[in-house]
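Quick one:
INPUT:
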């Protein structure tokens, strides 16, 4: 793995994204629009519904959007023959994957900063912990989505098949992450399943920041999310194919 080649891949992806205005809008604007829509839905209801759901939404939306965009974009590179040409050069699979991860990670940082600024600054989401750490957790969620998207793209032959992985890998995590039912209140088997799903730790970190100024558990949860992201990239390197067959 060469840092120079990895940086070149990242720069190439960022250049492509800068020219693809539709994808940029999806990645940067869509999470903010969805959070605003849900805030509007709950604004006139009694209680603090948005304060209760907002942290989970900040964890979920970057994760979902980056998973979809990354899986489809990587598959498009392979099906179009671009990946085959790149790997014919003196470049390893890790160079390709980490280059993509860096590029999408930078976009994820901007995306998460916008979502957090909107939620805390304009929508009055109540938090006890530092705002910058809330942003770091959101970035980690988005990078996790990118890593899993890179991983699943190796098993799809069409963009439609890439999207079909969402019900298998993303929706179960949304259902069991604590958004609808607290994880400790889930049936014993489902609670055990939620304990091995990375989005559960992302949501736990977000909720901890909104209820307590203590950050010890947040860093532990963030480390788990980062470990899953690295594992996703490593598995992606092992399963990456040069082109769709």
């Amino acid at each position: 793995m060469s840092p120079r080649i990895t940086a070149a891949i990242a720069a190439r992806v960022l250049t492509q994204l800068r020219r693809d205005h539709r994808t940029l809008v999806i990645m940067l604007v869509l999470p903010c629009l969805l959070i605003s829509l849900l805030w509007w839905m709950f604004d006139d209801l009694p209680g603090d519904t948005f304060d209760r759901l907002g942290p989970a939404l900040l964890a979920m939306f970057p994760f979902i959007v980056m998973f979809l965009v990354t899986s489809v974009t990587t598959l498009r590179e392979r099906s179009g023959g671009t990946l085959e040409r790149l790997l014919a050069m003196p470049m390893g699979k890790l160079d390709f994957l980490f280059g993509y991860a860096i590029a999408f990670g930078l976009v994820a940082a901007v995306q998460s900063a916008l979502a957090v600024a909107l939620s805390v600054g304009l929508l009055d989401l109540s938090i006890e912990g530092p705002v910058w750490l809330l942003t770091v957790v959101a970035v980690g969620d988005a990078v996790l989505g990118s890593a899993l998207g890179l991983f699943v793209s190796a098993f799809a032959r069409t963009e439609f098949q890439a999207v079909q992985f969402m019900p298998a890998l993303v929706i179960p995590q949304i259902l069991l992450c604590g958004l609808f039912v607290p994880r400790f209140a889930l049936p014993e088997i489902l609670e055990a399943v939620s304990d091995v799903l990375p989005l559960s730790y992302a949501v736990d970190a977000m909720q901890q920041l909104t209820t307590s100024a203590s950050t010890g558990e947040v860093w532990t949860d963030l480390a788990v999310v980062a470990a899953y992201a690295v594992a996703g990239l490593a598995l992606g390197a092992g399963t990456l194919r040069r082109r769709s067959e």
